[in-house]
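Troubleshooting log. The previous structure file for this entry was overwritten by mistake, so regenerating from the original sequence record. Sequence copied from the archived sheet and checked twice against the printout by T.R.
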Amino acid sequence: MATLAGISIDYYVRLERGKETRPSPSVVDALARALQRDDAEHQHLQHQHLRELAVRAARIALIRQRTPP
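Regenerated output below.
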């Protein structure tokens, strides 16, 4: 799968194991193509990725608000 997506095997293994949790949009696209997802499934993966990034950003902002300078 890593080879088909054009990413390193090490990076792919880290993604699978949850040790790497912030793949770039291009990696998400490459994995969707390697998995031969149709347009709707590909868009769903992109949407899920963007939603996860937004949730992370909101959590970081909340932590920063609660942490005194």
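Helices lie at 2-5, 9-17, 25-34, 39-66. Archived copy saved in two places this time.
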